[in-house]
Amino acid sequence: LCRGVSTSAVRNVVIKNVTIIGGGQMGAGIAQVAAATGHRVTLVDTEDDVLKKAKGIEGSLKRVVKKKFADNPQAGEEFIQKVLQNVSTSTDSVSAAQSSDLVLEAIVENLKVKQDIFGQLDKVAPEHTIFASNTSSLPITDIASATNRLDRFGGLHFFNPVPMMKLVEVIATSATSKETFDSLLDFSRVLGKTPVSCKDTPGFIVNRLLVPCLAEAVRLYERGHGSKEDIDIAMKLGAGYPMGPFELADFVGLDTIKFILDGWSEKYPSNPLFAPIDLLNKLVAEGKLGKKTGEGFYKHK
Ligand code: 3HC
């Protein structure tokens, strides 16, 4: 047996109890979707944040219900209550992990912090528990290296806004077992999403194509070859994108895009697609991160 492989891993795990570490936009969105599809979810965050996050879930559920139960608001309200009952919040990741089939991390993009959390939870989580990261830019292999369950470790990458976006990228490292990978594919389908299989390569599929596209849009604008507004209109009406690149950058967060680009340009300095962008760096330095701070490329209400 190679390192991290145990006999209990040689079967698919049916995921019912889920711990989600990190109650930001992504973590709360994943918690909402998992709870709405009948999973027991524990959302773990820091003291001050947990309750706030649960409120965000309720707000998003209301938007879902407004459409889905347009003819029957009473049934919609009951649905919301049922979903909320499936979500508990906690500040204690150790006790949450002890009764989980899946521990999914969606915290800050910092390798050391992620490794510390998984390293700690590896010691207390049951043998069968699968660990997964929602990282958008760090190698899953590097995060998993802090644990002894390399065969039960993979990536599950969701898209913002999680309740609306139908895709999940399921990432296998060279050590992820077939059983783990299949369990993650099944889990994604039970969530009502469509999974695609990815290798543990930078950006997986979507961000590897999307982030250079956003970066090229900013460069095109910097060169004065088009206004932000025209570039957005062009990509929406000419390429069928639901949001233009500047709208999407503001939506995702300019800090996130900068973080991804910086990581890649450090690793692959000769690739011009990953080169630093003055305007992006300037906006981030000014705290103009997009929708979440009220201003990015555009001003937001
Ligand atoms: N929760 C629940 N429902 C939501 C929602 C949310 N967070 N966001 C939108 N909706 C639903 C609501 O029903 C909303 O109706 P409402 O405004 O009356 O509440 C309905 O969607 C329609 O929304 P909008 O009228 O605001 O606009 P759209 O029809 O354009 O849909 C969108 C919104 C789904 C966000 C669409 O614009 C879109 O697909 N945009 C592109 C998003 C995208 O590319 N995401 C990926 C980003 S990359 C990423 O996440 C990876 C990471 O690693 C960086």
From TrEMBL:
GO MF annotation terms: (3S)-3-hydroxyacyl-CoA dehydrogenase (NAD+) activity; NAD+ binding
GO cellular component assignments: mitochondrial matrix
Binding site for NAD(+): 22-27, 45, 109, 114, 136, 160, 292
Signal peptide interval: none
Domain of life: Eukaryota
Biological or metabolic pathway of the protein: Lipid metabolism; fatty acid beta-oxidation
Location(s), subcellular: Mitochondrion matrix
Pfam families to which the protein is assigned, alphabetical: 3HCDH, 3HCDH_N
Enzyme Commission code(s) on record: 1.1.1.35
UniProtKB keywords: Acetylation, Differentiation, Fatty acid metabolism, Hydroxylation, Lipid metabolism, Mitochondrion, NAD, Oxidoreductase, Spermatogenesis, Transit peptide
Keyword NAD belongs to the record: yes
BP GO terms, sorted: cell differentiation; fatty acid beta-oxidation; spermatogenesis
Catalysed conversion reaction: (3S)-3-hydroxybutanoyl-CoA + NAD(+) = acetoacetyl-CoA + NADH + H(+); (3S)-hydroxyhexadecanoyl-CoA + NAD(+) = 3-oxohexadecanoyl-CoA + NADH + H(+); a (3S)-3-hydroxyacyl-CoA + NAD(+) = a 3-oxoacyl-CoA + NADH + H(+); (3S)-hydroxydecanoyl-CoA + NAD(+) = 3-oxodecanoyl-CoA + NADH + H(+)
Domain 3-hydroxyacyl-CoA dehydrogenase C-terminal stretches: 203-299
Domain 3-hydroxyacyl-CoA dehydrogenase NAD binding intervals: 17-201
Site, Important for catalytic activity: residue positions: 157
The protein's role, per its UniProt record: Mitochondrial fatty acid beta-oxidation enzyme that catalyzes the third step of the beta-oxidation cycle for medium and short-chain 3-hydroxy fatty acyl-CoAs (C4 to C10). Plays a role in the control of insulin secretion by inhibiting the activation of glutamate dehydrogenase 1 (GLUD1), an enzyme that has an important role in regulating amino acid-induced insulin secretion. Plays a role in the maintenance of normal spermatogenesis through the reduction of fatty acid accumulation in the testes.
Family of the protein in this entry: Belongs to the 3-hydroxyacyl-CoA dehydrogenase family.
Protein known as: Hydroxyacyl-coenzyme A dehydrogenase, mitochondrial
